[in-house]
């Protein structure tokens, strides 16, 4: 029986500690995935808030939050695609990050982009990526292979 | 070619980006009341439903009573008044009437008699699909007939299907999974998973679906033609990583259907009718 009725103070403190340790990395990964700091912030906030509400029911809070964060961000991107074709305003991070990379990532299909970001930035395993983006490990490998090829074409050869 | 180290080094530029401190907003969002039923009209209907239960139990009624229209023969679906278990206050608000202290059934399929007023609200079988062999876990609810298309229903009519999971087999429901035809965000369906312990509902009322639970609705023509039983089967599938915590072959479930018109429950069914069902072993 699940007995959690509400998040305890202890749970909240534990998740705040996780946020202080890992939240920035998740936000940056979501920035690379969504290309929009507002979506990254909303997805991080909502994923952590839902985790807090779930209290001790989450066996692996970090994994759940990463999965929820990417799915929330994907949902926001989908909504945006229905309402506007306008590119997000990323002005306040353009002087901080490799915008050429962000632009190239934005041209990848959603799951390719998620797989590339999770693998090359978050150091996630193929198994974890499969769980987080809702596909098979074989599909993740395909996404990684195709994503690398597409990025090569978009960014140009760097090493030969 | 772009080698792995080059790509990784380019990603390292992300480490220069400074996010805002989001914890105050997280705490504020977490403190808000949990998302309640995604289906306001159905919630109202179930409020009526639960009220009927309370009144009937209070009056000592054990015979079946009617909510809306009478049920058809041959075997009457258990009416609200015939439930022997108490109504969980928290679950009732989420339209689940819990069943406790009931006998278990141990069957491969949860075959159910023809006992509901509407054939497309009448559950004839429920099947659990354990994960394995590259397939994901899920539950199939087989109906007596294919339901009408969601888009063709009268505005005041809602059809809902779902099941309740008792992950620890202790008689207390832990999750409700459901789908209703009252999508409010541009889709045909509203699909949700509610953690009954916390009251948190993950819902999706517009495409792309798949999260929190993937589905195939028998009234949806879908990409592939279906016939026979598959054309009247409501199929839920949990995508990898989306399974409710603890949901496996040791869990118990029951499935439910509701049809509401103008806010009244006019047809319903449960399978099993008055029990939790133990899932078949793997």
Task: Give an account of the 3D structure.
The complex is a heterodimer of chains A (160) and B (282). In chain A, helix 3 (61-83) packs across helix 6 (126-133) and helix 5 packs across helix 7 (137-155). Helix content of chain A is 71%, strand content 0%. Chain A is mostly helical. The termini of chain A are far apart. Chain A is built from seven helices and no strands. The model of chain A is unreliable at 1-6 (pLDDT under 50). Chain A has helices at 9-34, 37-54, 61-83, 99-106, 110-120, 126-133, 137-155. Chain A is globular, with a radius of gyration of 17 Å. Chain B has 282 residues and is of the alpha+beta class. Chain B is built from four helices and twelve strands. In chain B, the strands form two sheets. In chain B, strands 1, 4, 5, 6, 7, 10, 11 and 12 form an eight-stranded mixed beta sheet that branches.
Overall shape of chain B: it is globular
Number of strands of chain B: 12
> Biggest interface and its residues per chain?
A-B, 63 and 49 residues
Q: Structural class from helices and strands of chain B? A: alpha+beta
Uncertain regions spanning at least 5 consecutive residues of chain A: 1-6
Oligomer status? heterodimer
């Amino acid at each position: 029986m699940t007995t959690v009725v509400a998040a305890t103070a202890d749970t909240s403190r534990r998740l705040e500690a996780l946020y202080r340790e890992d939240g920035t990395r998740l936000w940056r990964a979501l920035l690379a995935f969504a290309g929009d700091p507002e979506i990254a912030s909303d997805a991080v906030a909502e994923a952590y808030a839902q985790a807090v509400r779930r209290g001790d029911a989450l066996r692996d809070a970090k994994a759940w939050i990463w999965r929820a964060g990417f799915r929330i961000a994907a949902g926001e991107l989908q909504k945006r695609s229905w309402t506007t074709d306008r590119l997000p305003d990323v002005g306040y991070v353009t002087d901080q990050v490799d915008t050429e990379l962000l632009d190239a990532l934005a041209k990848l299909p959603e799951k390719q982009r998620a797989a590339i970001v999770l693998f090359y930035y978050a150091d996630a395993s193929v198994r974890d990526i499969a769980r987080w983006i809702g596909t098979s490990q074989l599909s993740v490998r395909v996404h990684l292979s195709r994503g690398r090829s597409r990025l090569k074409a978009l960014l140009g050869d760097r090493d030969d | 070619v772009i080698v792995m180290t080059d790509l990784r080094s380019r990603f390292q530029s992300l480490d220069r980006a400074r996010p805002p401190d989001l914890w105050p907003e997280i705490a504020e969002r977490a403190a808000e009341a949990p998302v309640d039923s995604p289906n306001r009209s159905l919630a109202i209907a179930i409020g009526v439903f639960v009220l009927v239960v309370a009144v009937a139990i209070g009056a000592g009624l054990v015979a079946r009573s009617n909510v809306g229209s009478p049920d058809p023969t041959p075997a009457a679906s258990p009416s609200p008044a015939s439930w022997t278990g108490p109504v969980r206050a928290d679950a009732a608000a989420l339209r689940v009437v819990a069943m406790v202290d009931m006998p278990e059934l141990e069957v491969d399929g949860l075959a159910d008699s023809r006992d509901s007023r509407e054939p497309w609200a009448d559950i004839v079988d429920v099947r659990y699909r354990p994960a394995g062999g590259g397939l994901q876990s899920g539950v199939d609810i087989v109906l007596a007939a294919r339901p009408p298309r969601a888009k063709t229903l009268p505005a005041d009519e809602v059809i809902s299907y779902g099941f309740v999971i008792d992950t620890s087999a202790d008689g207390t429901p832990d999750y409700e999974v459901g789908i209703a035809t009252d999508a409010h965000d541009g889709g045909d369906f509203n699909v949700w998973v509610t953690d009954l312990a916390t009251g948190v509902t993950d819902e999706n009322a517009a495409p792309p679906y798949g999260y929190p639970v993937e589905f195939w609705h028998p009234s949806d023509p879908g990409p592939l033609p279906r016939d026979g039983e598959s054309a009247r089967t409501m199929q839920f599938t949990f995508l990898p990583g989306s399974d409710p915590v603890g949901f496996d072959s040791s869990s118990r479930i029951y499935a439910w259907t509701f049809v509401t018109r103008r806010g009244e429950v006019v047809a319903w069914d449960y399978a099993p009718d008055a029990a939790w069902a133990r899932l078949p072993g793997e």
